[in-house]
Specification:
Blueprint: H1 3-9, H2 14-19, H3 27-47, H4 49-73, H5 89-99
Helix pairs in contact: 3-4
Length: about 120
């Protein structure tokens, strides 16, 4: 199996990615999903506060699922994802800490390494 095949098998399908709290995801896949979902909610606040609130509630599960899997990549428990609810500071923690930082290079209790 060449490196492109190996890379394809490590990507998670969309439904488990957005709705399951199991497994690990890398920074690129996390950023590719987390940033647009968060941006949608934040940009809606300029148009309509009530609509933005409803969308934010609908997106809580997928955002927590993504963040949990990203914490798993660092061999941390997913409950730390609750920090993303903190205004500004939580956003900075997620962006700086998990969009730009490489995870654990070893297999851990949450799954195989994504960096083999």
């Amino acid at each position: 199996m060449d490196s492109t095949e190996s890379h394809k098998t490590k990507k998670m399908e969309v439904l488990p990615l957005l709705f399951s709290f199991k497994g690990r995801i890398g920074r690129i896949q996390f950023t590719k999903w987390w940033l647009p979902l968060t941006s949608i909610t934040l940009s809606l606040y300029y148009l309509n506060d009530q609509l933005a609130g409803m969308v934010a509630i609908l997106l809580l599960w997928p955002l927590f699922a993504l963040t949990t899997k990203r914490y798993h990549d660092f061999n941390s428990f997913g409950w730390l994802g609750i920090f993303q609810l903190l205004p500004i500071i939580g956003l900075l923690i997620v962006i700086v800490g998990y969009c730009f930082t490489v995870g654990d290079f070893k297999d851990n209790k949450y799954g195989e390494s994504l960096y083999k």
